[in-house]
Amino acid sequence: MSDKPSVLFVCVHNAGRSQMAAAWLTHLAGDRVEVRSAGSDPGAAVNPAAVRAMAEVGIDISAEAPKILTVDAVRESDVCVTMGCGDTCPVFPGKRYLDWKLDDPAGQGVEAVRPIRDEIKSLVGTLLQEIAPPPAP
User: Fold this and answer.
1) Percent above pLDDT 90 for the chain
2) What pLDDT sits at residue 122?
3) Contact call for residues 14 and 40 (beta carbons, < 8 A)
4) Which phi and psi (to 5°) does residue 80 adopt?
5) 11 has catalytic annotation
6) Catalytic one of 85, 102, 116, 123
7) Catalytic pick from 7, 8, 10, 11?
8) Is residue 80 annotated as a catalytic residue, yes or no?
C-alpha cells in the first residue's frame, strides 16, 4: 500500500470528463498522487474532442482507454470523484466522496469542451492542494 494519496475519477463512460480529470491530476501532481479513472459502462474510446482539447494544453490522452469501474478501484482510492454524470461508487467507510457537476462533452466539438477542460483543471488544482500540496522549499 502506497503512502501517496490516491484519487479515482468516475464517469459512466470514462471517455471524457474523468479522462481529462485524471490527466490533469497526473500532469499537475507528478508522482505525488496515484491517479485512476473508470466508468460503470465504459465507452469504446476516449472522446476525440476531449483528446483535442487536452492536446491544446500539451497533455496527450490519445493512448488512454475507458476502463470498467471495480469495487477494488474504489477500495484502493482515498478520494472518489464522480463527474456529475449520475454514476455512483460503492461506499466504503473512511473514503472521501465528491461529485463535481460538469457539463457532458459527449457529442460536442472542441469549442464546447474547452470550458469543461478548464473547469476540471481548476477543480483538480484545488483538490491537489488539499490532498498533496507541493513540498515546502
Assistant:
1) 80
2) 98
3) no
4) -120, 120
5) yes
6) 85
7) 11
8) no
Q: Checking DSSP bridges between strand 79-82 and strand 34-38, what pairing results, if any?
A: unpaired
- Side-chain half-sphere exposure of 105, counting CA atoms within 13 A: 32
Q: Is 85 a catalytic residue?
A: yes
According to the model, what pLDDT value does residue 135 have?
Answer: 79
Q: Which of 12, 28, 50, 89 is catalytic?
A: 89
Cell of 22: 485524471
pLDDT of residue 1: 47
Better-scored residue on pLDDT, 9 or 86: 9
Per-residue pLDDT tens for 28-87? 999 999 999 999 899 999 999 999 999 999 999 999 999 999 999 999 999 999 987 766
